[in-house]
């Protein structure tokens, strides 16, 4: 029986190739979208969910409330807090402090080989409690003793092989690793690398006792509770049944008893499962994912699949008239309704199977196309057990959703009417349902079309808006951390001598990437005020062409000795005229500084944020970025390439072992809109897919209408109707459906895009022309879809339709 079902299904599929291609393509797009989004979301949701007792592991966060009421979320807390919490916080399983340390690493020469040098961002200082919270497989040494002694280190297996070559883990024990040229530590353990996705990617674990036994005690301030020395991540593992809220209050009491009363730090426990999705952390070292975006992706995938299934149903029922006689003959020969349903479901399952195969082939190309904003590490592994399960589940659900209704409709035809070619009984076609489905599909398509236009308009606005400073032909170069200021100045001076360079400045916080700082206008009655901080030497303002309204530029200095402020800060201080602010005093860390100039307002952050009160100062000790204004404005010219080559040579002459890396400043600013660009790409792709699928559905409805009204069209032609008139008659009803969809989609699209635009302090308006353009585009697309079948129906020979009458 099954063999016969498969044979008949194959014959019907090959006989109706056009329907097969359309059906398979539509379903393949929907299924491919589901698989791609499943791969992305499963990757993001997999981070750190493999740890034993993961639901009892928390990161200790600290909130600082600013004078404006804004809360800053700190992941790094005072270094001594972990030790104090272990002593004063009863009833916890383990508390571990983890202090990041980014040293230069040297492996001493051996057997005539030269010394090896590495840069490592995975080095941390911690204690044995870390291994009570996070479990590793120990290849050499053990968790209980490895980090108890000072001047010891535990390495991951991969890092051990990188340092010492192909030695066995036991042979690595006792080997020496040198950090920052003078910190000599012994390997006390080798652990196996995790092979699962994790944000905890440390590779070198130096014992906490090493701080007190080395020069690190002079730089890490192990006893300091001040806000300026918050350097340590703290993880805590709670016993079963312990509520995090209960521990929050106890942690607050510990901080209150040790820290300065002025330090208003409110601790709270963040579940391990939330770390990967918390982007609001100051100096966050990990790449975070946006959970609402993942849910949005899931919704889009479901929408696309539903649209594809709706089209399949429309096309299948559109074929029902052609297959009415087949059903009648089968029923006359004894086929029951159940066997007919199984036959049609077999055809649907076969088509779905072909669609799944095509979707699987498309997954990797789609991931490649979207690689620019898909996280590194996302990959499609078809033979993964979870992936196979998901694909099988999608196949079965899609086949049932797409096949049950057409099977029910086709199997319900009465033999007497079917053999006369009448098809289903009057009213059985669910005509209004089909129209409703088409309207729904175009509502979704129009929402995406309007959204794509609004997003493109806003992003074009962000690219062209005057930011209040120059961005073109400016290059930034980072210098190695920890190098002396004299070397940075030497590099800047050498670059300045190059013919293709107009101006050079040293900076820490550039105009489009300001830092935060707190200032006072008066020493007594005005509280600290949070302002933006732009930091650079005397060349910064002229290099970026920031307009000076009153006073003068910063003068050359070796430390902060004066301030330049913007108009907004001048107004905040109570001066309507910029000239009135010049010569006044501003207080920073309770020290007075004169205001020597006022500049025009500029955007110190992206257009997501309003212009804020801003200071420009010269903090020489932090200025490790070389900013270069090139003579040419065209990045593509050979002169630019030649100049950058000379810049690299000058830089290498000062930093021979460093890596020269430059970035055009306007490209750096564009990174502020990276998520918006990703949203635009996602919406544009979704728009193309939904339009394509909607057009398939519209094509099916036109086909159904043409066959349903074939006799009416033939009679009209005999009575003198022209082909153009008949084509217009068939088209106008569908255009009315598109217009109906536009009226419904417009307020929906306005709501969603209005919400999205609220994320920009400076934004475009959603004008009427956007809806007109979207509607015109949808109607044009619909006409192109309808025209072929409408003209074909209008040109058909009326004799063929009327000969059975």
Can you walk through the features of this model?
The chain is α+β, with helices and mostly antiparallel strands and 805 residues long. The protein is 48% helix and 17% strand. It starts with a helix and ends with a helix.
Which geometry do the CA atoms define?
A: globular
The amount of beta strand, in percent, is 15-25%
Name the average pLDDT: 83
- Report the oligomer: single chain
Percent helix: 40-55%
Radius of gyration: 34 Å
Terminal Cα span: 38 Å
Which stretches are poorly predicted, pLDDT < 50 over at least 5 residues? 424-429
Biggest sheet layout = 14 strands, mixed
Q: How many DSSP-defined strands?
A: 25
Number of helices: 25
**Class derived from helix and strand content:** alpha+beta
């Amino acid at each position: 029986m099954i063999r016969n079902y498969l044979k008949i299904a194959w014959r019907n599929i090959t006989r109706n190739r056009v329907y097969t291609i359309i059906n398979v393509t539509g379903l393949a797009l929907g299924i491919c979208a589901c698989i791609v989004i499943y791969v992305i979301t499963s990757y993001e949701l997999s981070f750190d969910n493999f740890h034993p007792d993961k639901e009892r592991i928390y990161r200790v966060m600290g909130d600082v409330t600013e004078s404006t009421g804004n809360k800053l979320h700190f992941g790094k807390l005072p270094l001594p807090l972990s030790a104090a919490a272990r002593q004063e916080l009863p009833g916890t399983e383990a508390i571990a402090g983890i202090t990041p340390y980014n040293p230069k690493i040297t492996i001493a020469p051996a057997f005539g080989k030269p010394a090896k040098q590495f840069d490592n961002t995975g080095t941390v200082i911690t204690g044995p409690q870390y291994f009570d919270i996070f479990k590793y497989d120990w290849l050499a040494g053990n968790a209980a003793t490895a980090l108890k002694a000072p001047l010891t280190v535990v390495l991951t297996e991969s890092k051990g092989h990188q340092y010492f070559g192909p030695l066995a883990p036991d042979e690595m024990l006792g080997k020496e690793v040198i950090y920052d040229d003078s910190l000599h530590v012994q390997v006390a353990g080798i652990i196996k690398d995790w092979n699962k996705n994790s944000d905890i990617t440390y590779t070198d674990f130096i014992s906490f006792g090493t701080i007190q036994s080395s020069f690190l005690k002079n730089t890490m301030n192990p006893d300091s509770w001040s806000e300026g020395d918050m350097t340590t991540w703290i993880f805590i593992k709670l016993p079963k049944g312990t509520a995090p809220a209960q521990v929050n209050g106890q942690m607050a009491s510990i901080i209150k008893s040790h820290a300065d009363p002025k330090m208003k730090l409110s601790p709270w426990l963040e579940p391990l499962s939330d770390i990967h999705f918390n982007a609001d952390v100051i100096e966050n070292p990990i790449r975070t994912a946006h959970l609402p975006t993942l849910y949005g992706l899931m919704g889009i995938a479901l929408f696309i699949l539903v649209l594809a299934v709706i089209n399949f149903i429309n096309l299948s029922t559109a074929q029902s008239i052609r297959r009415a006689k087949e059903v009648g003959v089968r029923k006359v020969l004894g086929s029951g309704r159940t066997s007919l349903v199984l036959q049609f479901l077999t055809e649907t399952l076969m088509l779905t199977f072909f669609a799944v195969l095509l979707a699987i082939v498309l997954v990797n190309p789609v991931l490649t196309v979207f690689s620019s904003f898909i996280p590194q590490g996302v990959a499609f592994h078809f033979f993964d057990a979870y992936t196979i399960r998901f694909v099988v589940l999608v196949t079965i659900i899609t086949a049932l959703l797409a096949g049950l209704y057409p099977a029910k409709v086709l199997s319900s035809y009465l033999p007497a009417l079917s053999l006369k070619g009448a098809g289903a009984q009057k009213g059985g076609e669910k005509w209004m349902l089909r129209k409703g489905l088409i309207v729904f599909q175009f509502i979704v398509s129009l929402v995406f079309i309007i959204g794509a236009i609004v997003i493109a308009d806003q992003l074009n606005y962000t690219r062209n808006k005057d930011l209040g400073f120059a961005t073109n032909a400016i290059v930034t170069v980072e210098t190695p951390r920890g190098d002396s200021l004299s070397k940075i100045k030497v590099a800047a001076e050498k670059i300045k001598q190059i013919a293709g360079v107009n101006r050079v400045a040293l900076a820490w916080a550039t105009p489009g990437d300001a830092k935060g700082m707190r200032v006072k206008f008066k020493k007594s009655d005005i509280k600290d005020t949070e302002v933006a901080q732009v930091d650079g030497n005397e060349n910064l303002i002229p290099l970026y062409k920031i307009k000076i309204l009153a006073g003068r530029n910063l003068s050359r200095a070796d430390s902060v000795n004066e301030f330049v402020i913007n108009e907004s800060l001048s107004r905040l201080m109570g001066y309507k005229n910029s000239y009135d602010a010049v010569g006044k005093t501003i207080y920073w860390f309770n020290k007075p500084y004169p205001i020597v100039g006022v500049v025009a307002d500029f955007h110190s952050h992206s257009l997501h944020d309003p212009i804020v009160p801003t200071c420009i100062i010269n903090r020489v000790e932090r200025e490790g970025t070389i900013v270069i204004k090139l003579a040419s404005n065209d990045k593509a010219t050979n002169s630019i390439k030649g100049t950058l080559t000379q810049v690299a040579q000058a830089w290498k002459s000062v930093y021979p072992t460093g890596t020269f890396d430059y970035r055009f400043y306007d490209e750096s600013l564009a990174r502020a809109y990276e998520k918006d660009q990703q949203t635009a790409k996602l919406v544009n792709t979704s728009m193309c897919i939904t339009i394509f699928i909607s057009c398939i559905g519209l094509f099916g409805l036109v086909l159904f209408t043409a066959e349903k009204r074939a006799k009416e069209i033939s009679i009209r032609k005999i009575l003198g109707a022209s082909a153009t008139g008949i084509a217009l008659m068939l088209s106008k009803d569908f255009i009315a459906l598109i217009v109906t969809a536009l009226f419904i989609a417009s307020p929906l699209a306005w709501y969603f895009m209005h919400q999205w635009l609220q994320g920009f302090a400076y934004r475009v308006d959603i004008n009427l022309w956007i809806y007109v353009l979207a509607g015109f585009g949808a109607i044009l697309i619909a006409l192109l879809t309808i025209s072929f079948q409408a003209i074909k129906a209008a040109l058909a020979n009326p004799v063929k339709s009327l000969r059975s009458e």
